[in-house]
Amino acid sequence: MGEPVLSVENLRIALPEGADRPFAVDDVSFELRAGEILCIVGESGSGKSMSANAAMGLLPDLVRPVGGKILFDGSDLLRLSEAQLMDLRGRRIAMIFQEPMSALNPLLRAGEQIAEVFEAHDLLTPKERSARAMELLEEVGIPDPEKAARAYPFQLSGGQRQRVMIAMALALEPEILIADEPTTALDVTTQAQILDLIRNLQEKHSMAVMFITHDFGVVAEIADRVAVMQYGKIVETGSVDEVLDNPQHDYTRKLIAAIPTLATDRARGDVGKQPVLEVDGLCKTYVTGGSLFGRNRRVVKAVQNVSFTLAEGETLGIVGESGSGKSSVGRCLVRLLTPDAGMVRLGGHDMATLSGEALREARKSIQMIFQDPYASLNPRSRVGRIIAEGPMAHGVPKAEAYSNAERLLDLVGLDTSAIDRYPHEFSGGQRQRIGIARALALEPRVIIADEAVSALDVSIQAQVLDLLADLKEKLDLALLFITHDLRVAAQICDRIAVMKEGEVVEIGPPRQIFTNPQNVYTRSLIEAIPGRERELAAAE
Amino acid sequence: MLRFILMRLGKAVIILIAILILNFFLIHAAPGDPAAVMAGEAGAADEKFIADLRERFGLDKPLLTQLGIYLGGVLQFDLGYSYRQQMPVADLILDRLPATLLLTMTAFAISLSLGTLAGVLASARVGKWSDTLISTTALLFYATPLFWAALMAVLLFSVVLNWLPGFGYETVGANYTGFRRVLDIGQHLILPATTLGLFFMAVYMRMTRASMLEVSQLDFVKTARAKGLRPSVIQRRHIFRNAMLPVVTLAGLQAGQLVGGAVLTETVFAWPGIGRLMFEALAQRDYNVLLGVFFVSAAMVLLFNLITDILYRFVDPRIRVG
Fold first, then answer.
1. Could you read off the pLDDT of A136-164 as tens digits, one per residue?
2. So what's the ipTM on this one?
3. In this structure, are residues A538 and A245 in contact, taking their beta carbons and an 8 Å threshold?
4. Closest-CA residue in chain B for A57?
5. Closest C-alpha among B294, B229, B240 to residue B17
6. A116 interface with B at CB cutoff 8 Å
7. Which residue in chain B is spatially nearest to A153 when comparing CA positions?
């Protein structure tokens, strides 16, 4: 490894008054060396993004550095004027962000946005700028760069958008690339491609890369060195092998232990049990746009002929990338969507054709847990009401419904005093527990968890997964677990169905799916799981 | 694009006919009829005279027949005949339309340009005293009733200060020609156009300010900063363009009121436009003139909605292609 190109020394960044702690970043020191990829890893709120933004002089308005230095090429970035920083930004230090859709201006063409980098630093003529933009698009591996240069961001796929961002960052061959969770919003196969791209470009241009992530799988794929952050402090630094194979700090150990492993020896003790849910030939097609005369219509076959059964006490995973139709299946089952064809047999009824009172009654036995614990609880209702509302709607007396709510809060591991509080008083993990209690209140036989742990940090995720497994055991529930995360699926599911473009391409026990996938697409999904190779190597 | 416009025009025609029919019944459902009003004014309110008038105007026929006759006329661009003014309605409207369009379009231009400019300035100085000043002034404009503002403007600028003429379209009897006439009309225009524009100016200012502040928090603005772009470029190219999207929608709504929205102002300033024509027709139960004015204003609303939608496709590629 080369000389340090960026040295952060005793950096301290103050949070505005009333935040949960005084410093977002507290006495942090690390070095970024020439030609290396340094991963800064931590959970949300650990201060990892703040450290990166400080180096760019792009901290939010109310947050300011109050101590330490960030040394780059002999000067302290924290003491540079805005004009000096403007000159460095994009030219010597470039940055890419998490969500490429919102990081690109929706009203400007991709080519224009890349060319802008040259304009910002008064380089080249307008004609040369667009020619360079085209070359850059080619370099980041976009097929048909000419077309992509003319496209608006919404016309590109998620992976292509992130490639455009990378092209923009590379334009002036910066010495440092700061990548803030650049693959978090991408599907797993796209993520693998973007990680490859960053690695290749880093070697080709011998850049130093500061890579911010929460995902140890990604760390295993891309890092040379790792710094682990917790509550604004760096708790451990070392080479990727040292940190992953022999973590010294308790927090690092805890984080690594919380990663769901791909070891798939779950034994199914429930073979032969009665099916509670039978789905046969389920279809759902969305038709959008178009005129009176049916032109310009877009037809999306979201669910195509999907069939499976779910046994009592079984956990069936539905995995797939975004747009694969996995959430549409879940919504059809609880009849938030009405399927176009097919049968959903649950407790002697066909959910697909019920209506009115009969549907209301049947819905009691199939309940849902949603992805976003912030958006899925009514912020103006107290927790007690959120949980008791369902049973009360079905005629349970108020006192009974509330006392039942207390029992459920206890069951999901929350204090019963939560009943009188509002959702905003709880953390993400706690809110998801409330969501689970709400789903359980109607005493369902089947629970559909739609990306129920995807928004949570890995340590919280592990706790919620444990809770779900525990509850399933206690209450003999059947669980349909919809996720994009194959690691999570491996850990919790008895069987896994892999979906692609509305169809189930493969279904089977995790062991079979992970070690002997029959379908080409399944295989590509499995191979794209970050950190898989390291894990396999370690297992041997 | 052409397909889109043709489709929208087709829908607009259907809506327009529906509006015509609805207006027709609404007007006839109101109490009073023109024959009685005219007879009363003529001082000859006997039954025979009124019946004669009714027969002459076709008001004795069944309502549906009257509607059929009227719609048949409209399809041939004939908006009927004003028995009060003894002129075809279309001529009356065409006669008044230029004055109204001059007034409302000037007001529109003033409110849109000054409103967005003030909004941009306020957003760039958020929290400082100039922002407070601009925002408070806008709030004042927003809350002031139009007729009161108009009266106060006349009182101050023409009665007390004697700077500007307080009523009319041009100086009566001066018979100016050429540039002198343009100047004269211009002077007459300032007070009514400004008064009429105040409310929307405030609306544009508040919307532009809020929208600029909202957009400046979005991720792509951070990307622009990370490129090393100058703040002025970021402000103009990245923030302003995106912040203008809701303003365009609102401008379309205001533009739709170009014909019908100036009744109050035209009345206060004795401006010889459609608004006053409508006001007079209302007092006189002049059905055909009222229907004609309603028809033209409805057509304008639909036309400007269409123009807004086309414009929106131009400023926002997501609508154009998506």
1. 999 998 888 999 999 999 888 888 999 99
2. 0.81
3. yes
4. B226
5. B294
6. yes
7. B318
